Amino acid sequence: MRPYVLIYLYRNRLRVHTAQELLAGLGVAVAVALVLATLVANASIAGSAGEVVRAAAGSATLQLEARGPEGMPGQLLERVEELPGVKRAAPLLEQTGTLVATGGRGATVTITGTTVGLATLDGLARTLPIATLAPGGIGLSRTTAQALGLGDGEKQKVTVILRGVSSRLNVSAVLGPKTFGALSRATVAVMPLPRLQRMAGLHDRVSRVLVEVERGHEAEVRRGLERLAGSRLDVTPADRGLGLLRQALRPSGQASDLFAAISALLGFLFAFNALLLTVPDRRQAIADLRVDGTGRAAIFQMVISQGLLLGLAASLVGLIGGYALSGAFHQFPGYLSRSFTLGSNTVIGPAPVVLALACGLLATCSASIVPLLDLRAGRALDAAYGEDGAPGNDVSETLQRRATLGGVTLLALGSALFVLVPSAAIEVCVLLALATMLLVPLALAGVLRTASAAAVSYRRLTLLSAALTSLRATTVSSLALAATGAVALFGSVALGGSRADLLRGIDSYTSHYVAGASLWVLNPHDNQAIDDFAADGHAAAIARLPGVSGVSVFQGSFVNLGERRLWAIAWPRGAPLTLLSGQIVAGQTATAQARIEQGGWIAVSAQLASEHRTGVGGTLTLPTPTGNIPFRIAATTTNFGWTPGAIVMNTADYSRYWDPTRPAAPSALGVQLDGGTTVAVARGEIIRALGPSSGLEVLSADERERQIDASASEGLGQLADIATLLVAAAILALTAAMGSSIWRRRVALAGLRLEGTTPKRLRRVLAIEVALMLSAGCLTGAILGMYGQLVIDSYLRHVTGFPVAGFATGARPLEIFLAVIASVLAITAIPAWFASRVSPTFALDE
User: Fold this and answer.
1) Pick from 695, 725, 760: which residue ends a domain?
2) Helix ranges restricted to H, 659-807
3) Mean pLDDT over all residues of the chain?
4) Global pTM?
5) What are the angstrom distances between the C-alpha of 525 and each of 529, 637, 656, 711, 727?
6) What helix, strand, coil percent values describe the chain, rounded to 5?
7) Domain boundary among 203, 237, 271
C-alpha cells in the first residue's frame, strides 16, 4: 500500500474508534512519561553538578587540596606559582554556612572566598563583577537569592552563620547566568578571601589551590605539587569533586537505577496492555479485509503502520509529559549540600529521550503483532467471527495453560537467581514482572469460578451473573485489564514498599544516634555534625548550668579516600556508642565499642571494607591532615544513610590526627540532663549561656531526629519521585484501560437498555466487572510485588549498604493496594456513568 492509503485507512479507524484509540494512546503516553521522568530524575543531579564543578574550576586541570576542615597555609600559593610549567594558580577557601534573610528565610550554602586571580582562570565565570569581591559584602547566586526570597535588584543584608558565629553582611550582587554561568543555579555565595578567613577563624588558610598548567607540562607540574603536598595534602584533578559526587550518588544511584529499570519495564507492559484492548476490533477488521480479498502483505502494512503512527503520536505526548514531571518531581538534594556544590537544574540528555521513545514504539508494535496471528496459514479468513463470545476476544484454554506454565517457570527461575546472585535484583524483578502478567489468566479464572459459585448458590445475585457473562464474552479485554492491574500493583508495591523499608531503617538508626544526648548544640541544619565551631568555653559554661549533668564533645568531618568522601564520626570516650545499635554487619557491638574507646580502632561501612579487601581485625589506612594513618577495624556497619560510607572512631584519635596543634574544636555538644530538669527549661538556659552573637542552634533529641529523618527523606527524593510516579502511572494506566473497555461496550450496553435494563443497574454491572478484574489482577500483582519488595530490600541492604528495616514490619504494600483500587474505582465511575446512559437506539444505529 502507498503511504497515503495507509494514512487514509488510519484516519478512517480514528473516526470510527476515536475514544478507543485515544485511551490506548493515553496508556502509551503514560508509560513513555514514566520512563523518561525516572531516567531524567536519575541523571539530573550528577549532570547539573558537573556543570557547576567545571564552571568553578575554569581552565584549571590540577589542584592542591587540604585534607581537613582547617585547610592549609596560604603561603603555599606562592610556592605553587613558582613551579616550572605552572601557568596560573588561584586560592579558594570553601566553607559551609547558613544565610538568613531579613524575613527569616534561610538556606545552607557553600561560601567561597577567593581573589581576583581566580578570574584569570575563568573560574567562577570570567564575567564575575569585580564589586562582588569588594570588602564588606557577599555575592549570592540567583538560586541562593531565590531561596532567601531576595530579588535580583534588591540591596539587602543577610545574616551569615559560620562556625558558630553570626555576622551581618551586605549583599553586594545577585549573580545570574550571564555573570555566573552554571554557578547561578547552585546554592553558593562568594566573598573576598581575607574576609572569609577572618569570619571562619582560619587566618591565612585556604582549602585548595587551583592550577592551570602549560601545555605539555602536566606530569612535571604534578610531580612538583606532590613534593609540596608530601603525605599531608592531596594532589588531584581540578574536577575531583565531580568524581566524589558520582561516588556519593552511586549507592542511591544504584537504587534509582533499579527503580528506573523496573519502571521502564512496567511502562512497556502498561503500553503493551493498553494496545491489547484494541486487539478484538483489529482482528475483526482483519477478518473483514481478508473476506474482501485483501492480501496478507497489505494487511500487515496497515496494522504495523497504525501501530507506529499511534505509538509515535502517543510517545511524543508522553515525552512532553515526562519532561514536565521530571521538572516538577526533581528535588534539590539538600542533604549533600554540606559536602558538595550542587546545581538545581534538570538535565535531559539524548539517551533518556531515545529510550523512552523506543519503549513506546516497541510496545505498540509488539501489541500490533497479536492480531496479525490471524494471518497464519491454515487460519480461517473470518477467524475472529468463528469464536465463542464477542468476536476477536477468545483465548483458548491451551494458551491459558501455557501462560500459567510460563509464569510458574519464570517465578522459579527468579527465585533461584535471587538465592544464587543477590546483586541481580533487576534481572529477578524483570522475571517476576513477566511472571505476574503470565499468571493473570490463572488468577482471573479462579476469581470467575469463585464468583460463579456464589452466583449459583445465591440466585438473587442476578447482577453478578450478568457481569460474569460479559467477562467471559470478552476474554482478551478482561485479561488485558487484569494484567494492567497486576503490573501496576507489582511495581507500586515492590518499589513503594522498599522505599518505606529504607526510610524506616534510617529512622531506626537516627533514633539510636541522637540517643547519645538529651540536647544537642551544633551549627544550623548540620545533621551530620561535620562543621566544627570555636570552643569558646561553651562546653564549660553549659556544664555549670543547673540541671545539666554532663556535656560531651562530638567531632566529625569528611575524609576523601580515593573516590569516596567518607563521613568521619568521632564519638567521645565514655559515652555509649548508641549509633552502632542495629547497624553492625560483621562483628560484635560490645567488642567494637570497647576497641574503639581503646583507640587505634574504627568501625567502617561494609562496602568500604569490601572495596579495600579488608574486614574485622584487618587494617584500613586513612589520609589525615597529619599523614596516612593505619587503623584496625573493630566492626563493619551499614552506611548510616551517608551513601559513600562512614567511619566511627573516638575523639582522642580524631584530635590527634586531624589537628594536634590546636584545642579540639567540637562539631556538636551533647548535653545530658538531671532527671528533674525539663528539656524546654534547659534549652532556654543554654541559649542564654551561648550569648546573642552565637549562631549555634539547640535541639532536643526528638527535634534532631526529625530533622535528620527529613533530610534522609529528601536525600532519597529520587526514589520517592519514582515510587510516586509509578503509583500515579498505575492509576492512570488502569483508568485509561478500564475507560477504554467501558467505552467499547456501549453497543452491548445499548442492547441491554433496549431490553429494559435501567442505567442504574448497568452501572452496578460495570462496577462488579471492574471489581472482579481488579481483584484478580491487583491481588496477583500485590502478592508478587511483596516478593519483589523482598528482593529489592536485600539488594539495598547488601549491595548499596543502606540500613533497611525488616520486610514484615511495614504496612505500605497494603496502603498502596487499597489506594490504587479505590482511586481506579472512583475514577472509572465517571465513564461508567456516561456509558450507562447511552441511547437504546445506538444499538440499532450500529
Assistant:
1) 695
2) 679-690, 701-715, 717-744, 746-754, 759-795
3) 80
4) 0.73
5) 9, 25, 27, 9, 32
6) 60, 15, 25
7) 237
